[in-house]
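The freezer alarm interrupted the setup, so I double-checked each line after restarting. Inputs confirmed:
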Amino acid sequence: MASKRRELVSLIEQGAIPPEQVARAVDIAELPPSSRAWIGLIDRLLLWLGGLALAFAVLFFIAYNWAEMGRWPRFALVQVALVLAAGVAVWGNTRRLIFRVAITAACLLVGVLLALLGQVYQTGADPWQLFFAWAVLTLPWVWVARFDVLWVLWLGLLNVALWLFFDTWGGALDGGFIQDDAVFWWLFALNTIALAVWEWGLQCRGWRSRRWGIRLLALGSGVPVTFLMMTWIVNSASFAATLVVYPLWLVALFGAYRHLRPDLLLVAGGCVSVISVVTLLLARFLIGKDEWQADSMLMLALVVLAMGAIAAVWLKRLHREVTQ
Amino acid sequence: MTRKTTPLITRLSQAGIPLSEHDSKVSPEVPWFVRLLQAFSGWLAAFFLLGFVALAAMPVMDSAAASMGLGLIMIATAFALLSAARHDVLEHLALAVSLVGQLLVAWAWVMTWDASASLWWPLLVLQVVLALVMPSYMHRTFSACAASLALYMALAMIALEQSTSWLVLLALTLLWLNEFRWPGRIRNVQAWGYGLLVGLLILQGVAHSGQPLWIQFEDHRVGTWGWLVPWLNTVLSALTLALLLHRVFKTQPRHWSAFAGAVALLLVSLYVPMVVQGVVVLLLGFAIGHRLLFGLGVLSLLVGTGSYYYWLDTTLLIKALTLLVIGVLLLVLRKSLRVWHGASTPREPRS
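Predicted 3D structure, all chains:
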């Protein structure tokens, strides 16, 4: 069903509402929020911005690396802030909002403490170890918080740790186009498993979460597998696992989000992936390694236009079906 | 054709607003992600089309006049295509043709003026004109975004680039607050509003992070109006907040805490400008009941915070102290509001 705003815009555009009555119709539709909603927003905003400003103040201070301040006061500062945030989370655990802000700040401060450790003792640890340790240490808090923002941040930490690991030990982006695609396989596996678990939790375990987390994870799954397919097109012509995994991923994506749990944003993401892969495949065949030809360019432009138009028409039709 | 009855239609009818069965042929609103897909394929096609023009008509690229002529013809062709037909294929084709035309016109100006101040003002005018006249939602969005970036470049030539994001924010606030003022042009206003918002996000993310769109402005500056930036930003932010307050007071009773909040935001904007811009977009989205705008406000807030870290105008120590003071003040303000508002403050849900 269309949202109130979308429905109102549609009625105005159809000319169903006389122009002189539009302003009244907007008021009657109650698009602007009530006083109570405003107070609620300001209350939440002040708490979130205030809590995060304090956590970021500690982060910025440590990043400044003030030479005149000894190591112990610096450690004391971060640890006191961490204990305070954790204390507020425990003390305020009956108030969901306070608990969430405090536990998010505490999770951020764990990372600051780890960064300080590396800064003071020059541990020589690789950057990926910082992010991995950060993720491991905050897992219990993320687990008990049952807060989708924290889960996404936690998965973000694992993604960064993986990327930095391959960046350190070779293979992330070895100059030119991608030579070693291992990092994309790992990122794809991590985000796809997380996506499947999240969907399972929503469907079977009654988890309560908004769709944006699922969508971010689908993006985290789709981007690496699309890159894997593009890497195969550029680097190799022999059989590879990508040739099986990519079509399977597409079938799963379209099957799940077209039929089982309609989400056209994700279907559109799949279309973008297909357009990118097909364009690169055609470019590989039409444009030789060093020969750029005018007719090939024109053909590619027309094919891209056709694919984009077909996808748009299909998505609009699906949108009409879903909204009716 | 009989229109399906919905709660909104029932409410409008009960309020005495007659709903006519005027025109049922208007297509339903296209979701934003479909427009994004259209833009993606349009730009990708434009890239290949430009390659085709460059290879097939190489002499055109060597002459400023020929580039300009071909560019203008392509823009005119795109306009004709968009005016004549509403099919998706044609809209895609027109978008790609127009983008190539704009690149050719820009190329002609680059050949004439290099990256000097003279280049950016005409580019700004071109994008504004295209945003106004091109009969396509996607094109208007793109041109509004490109206009905000061209404005940034043009102002950078006189050392006023740090005021661009406030100017763009003021313009988009004006647009979204007047979204329903011209019933026949709602989609146009939305397209300009989204375009400027994307421009603002780019400016927040790139322009203030010490890498101002990869252009060495110092080599081309024609004026130094940098001293004006703090004053101009204060005036622009005050105007934006006043507009927002004016809108809120149309539907809500006036309360001193709203004025106090606006003044507090104004003061904070002097020290943490990008973060306040995010808060303003978020409040704007909430004020007009626009969920996507609200979400983009949260994104703007995150981008602004990241940008603040890399902002070169002040040290990390000063930034840390500023955030500390702001954090404490915000929490004290929340506590005070809860005490003053008492019963009207919503009770927090228990976990």
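Quick read of the result. Chain B has 14 helices and no strands.
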